[in-house]
Amino acid sequence: MQLFLDAVSTFEFSEEVTRLFHGRGGCFPGSEHINVDYYPPVILLTSFTDLADDELQLALSTIKNHWTETVADKPCNLVYQYRHGGQTQTRLLCGEVPEPHVVTEHGCQFQVHLLRGQNHGLFVDMRNGRHWVKHHAQDKKVLNLFAYTCGFSVAAMQGGAVSTVNIDMSKGALAIGKQNHLLNGFDQQVKYLGHDIFKSWGKLTKFGPYDLIIADPPSNQRGSFVATKDYARLLKRLPSLLAEGGEVLLCLNAPELSLDFLKSQVAQYSPTLVLVEQIANPPVFKDINPDKALKVLRYRQT
To answer: Under a CB-based contact definition with an 8 Å cutoff, are residues 46 and 83 in contact?
Structure first.
């Protein structure tokens, strides 16, 4: 993990939530198991192999030393998370985690929960996607599928959307999403539907048609969405929800599925959608194999 330790000296602690180190992209040999995120004022060190005590202490001291050199007037807050086989172990190594813990991204505020498992409330790799939505939502009706804590919806409302509809099977996630909207001053023209998308086409149609649809599904979540079989089901219905000239942002975060998989699914099941562009990931998420990274494609209805 020497390349990770060397990279710590380059960390910049800004006021916004961001990734500081992306070992999972494979660009730092020997440190592929490590990611570091900054949810101000807390640093989150995530490892996909269990770090030995001496490795963990070395990582902690290296980060703390750099923090002291760059942010001398504030204590270092650091959380360690070990993920393996669907299980998550989380420890506070030093400092504290504020409660509530509110972070900022592109002028939007979000609640996060670093000590509650691996779903922290805001996925930092989708930063550019939310930024794109914020700058393309003016005067649009927006549908946010698999909404989770409604990050896309907050960005859309911040960008001047007329209304948003958020749908997700997790009512708990949607409750946090509602709080996220209230944090940003949006308590009107936002709907929250705690339903299975595949059983709710009638309700979604009732609130449409939509000028912009965002689909950011889980890649392999049994009982909710499995990309290899469910993206086809989704794409068969999406065009009917779109207004004339409407756009769709399709997301795929499955390392085992390529960009061509998503493109071929669209071509087969939504032939009226035309590819406009691929939304680039933040530079810190550089991957030696782009097909394994997050894929975000913008389509327009013809």
So the answer is: yes
**CA of 43: how far to CAs of 54, 75, 81, 228, in Å?**
19, 11, 11, 35
122 neighbors 116 (Cβ within 8 angstroms): no
pLDDT tens digit string along 151-161? 999 999 999 99
Gyration radius (Cα) of the chain, Å: 20
Ramachandran sector of residue 29 (left: φ over 0; alpha: ψ -120 to 50; beta: rest): beta
In percent, the amount of the chain with pLDDT more than 70 equals 99
Q: Taking the alpha carbons of 108, 113, 119, 125 in that order, is the dihedral positive or negative?
A: positive
Nearest CA to 279 out of 108, 126, 155 is that of 126
d(CA 14, CA 71): 10
Give me the pLDDT at residue 223, please: 67
Query: Tell me, what's the pLDDT at 2?
Result: 93
Maximum CA extent, the chain = 59
Q: What is the model's pLDDT at position 177?
A: 97
Output the six-digit token pair for 243.
């207004």
Domains in the chain (CATH in brackets) are: 2-99 (3.30.750.80), 123-301 (3.40.50.150)
Q: What is the residue-wise DSSP string for the chain? A: -HHHHHHGGG----SS-EEEEEGGGS-STT-TTEEEEEETTEEEEEESSPPPHHHHHHHHHHHHHHHHHH-TTS--EEEEEEEETTEEEEEEEES---SSEEEEETTEEEEE-TTSSS--SS-GGGHHHHHHHHTT-TT-EEEEET-TTTHHHHHHHHTT-SEEEEE-S-HHHHHHHHHHHHHTT--SSEEEE-S-GGG-HHHHHHH--EEEEEE---SEETTTEEHHHHHHHHHHHHHHHEEEEEEEEEEE--TTS-HHHHHHHHHHH-TTEEEEEEPPPPGGG--SSGGGS-EEEEEEE-
